[in-house]
Specification:
Length: 305
């Protein structure tokens, strides 16, 4: 069996952060969060990393991340572009926003033939999460259903003091399998818990801090790519037609559809590590402190590569 592949979503515009946060250093040695993710994946046994980026960012991305990493693990690049639309569809006039995470993963279809994990470039997930994903990917295969997994985190451990976040809110059964996942695109921390809005802040619904959420850390067999092919075509026919400038095809939503159709199971894996990330520039000092602490504890060497 081929070693699992790590697919990294790194084509986001970084609009809330105010720059290309994927290549912004988080320590004195110039490492980015993505370096720690790849280091953990290599340590867990992954055999290749596929970066999903914008073509226009390739030179900077290679120089800042890819060239150093490629000395330790096989590297490939995939480009998520607005021009990658299903046959028969056109780019709406004025559209600049990427098509979403499901569309991004679909861009890997010609490059990824092995079981694979998916992560965000700007999220730190922790060493144990990669070990859990590797174990799952090397011990599970599709049978009468697709066999997928995700790493779940408690909502309270994934919030920032500096603004809203998007999270996939999860409901699991008594056996630890995902029953449903609902993408909430605007969740904020409150004095007592958290809350989300779907109408630009006119109304808010409270969420408990121990609610499990998806941080876009998934384990898939290649079967997901054929499903996303059909999903993206449906998205363009329906969602883009209704909301041409802002509609996005979210990976958690498409996974939820497969669950409801009885085509897949998703085992919820748990990481013992604390998540952190840089949604906003104001998050960066906390991330740097966290990285320094992990180095002091011996989790990482001073220089990774």
């Amino acid at each position: 069996m081929n070693k699992p592949v790590l697919v990294i979503l790194a084509a986001g515009m970084g609009s809330r952060y105010g720059g290309l946060k994927q290549i912004d250093p988080v320590d004195a040695q110039g490492h980015k969060i993505i370096d720690f993710s790849i280091y953990d994946a290599v340590r867990a046994g992954f055999g290749k990393v596929v970066f999903i980026i914008k073509k226009e960012n390739e030179k900077d991305f290679r120089e800042c991340v890819g060239d150093a990493v490629s000395k330790h693990i096989e590297v490939e690049y995939v480009y998520q572009e607005l021009t990658k639309v299903p046959e028969g569809f056109e780019i709406p006039e004025g559209r600049v926003k990427p098509w979403g995470t499901a569309h991004a993963i679909l861009c890997c279809k010609d490059k990824v033939k092995e079981p694979f994990a998916v992560i965000n470039a700007d999220d730190y997930y922790g060493r144990s999460a990669y070990e859990e994903l590797y174990k799952f990917l090397t011990t599970h295969e599709d049978d009468e259903k697709y066999r997928y997994a995700m790493v779940g985190y408690e909502l309270g451990n994934t919030l920032t003091e500096n603004g809203s976040v998007a999270r996939g809110v999860c409901v699991s059964d008594e056996n630890g399998f995902l029953k449903e996942i609902t993408e909430r695109t605007k969740i904020v921390k409150t004095e007592t818990a958290a809350a989300f809005t779907e109408d630009d802040g006119q109304t808010w619904t409270e969420l408990a801090l121990d609610v499990p959420v998806s941080m876009n850390m998934w384990a898939f067999s290649p079967s997901i790519l054929n499903e996303l092919d059909a999903a993206v075509e449906s998205f363009f026919a329906n969602n883009v037609a209704a909301n041409p400038l802002k509609a996005e095809c979210f990976l958690p939503i498409e996974v939820d559809k497969l669950l409801k159709a009885g085509k897949a199971t998703v085992e919820v894996l748990h990481s013992s590590d604390k998540w952190f990330g840089v949604t906003y520039k104001e998050d960066k000092p906390f991330v740097m402190e966290s990285i320094a602490k992990l180095k002091a504890e011996g989790v990482y060497p001073e220089v990774l590569w």
